[in-house]
Amino acid sequence: MTLNKGIKAIDALSKIQSLLSAAQWLTSSQEETELQLELLNIAKTVAVRVLEECK
Description:
Layout (H helix, E strand, L loop, with lengths): L2 H21 L6 H24 L2
């Protein structure tokens, strides 16, 4: 893996961490629960893209 890809991977992991941290608090209403699932899906998408880039 190149240095640039490594930096991008670390940046993506940081973003995933932020998304997951925000998602854990969205539980008080149906709308927040839907937003929580959306954030989790975004985090998954980012993770998949990073893994594909690191190949």
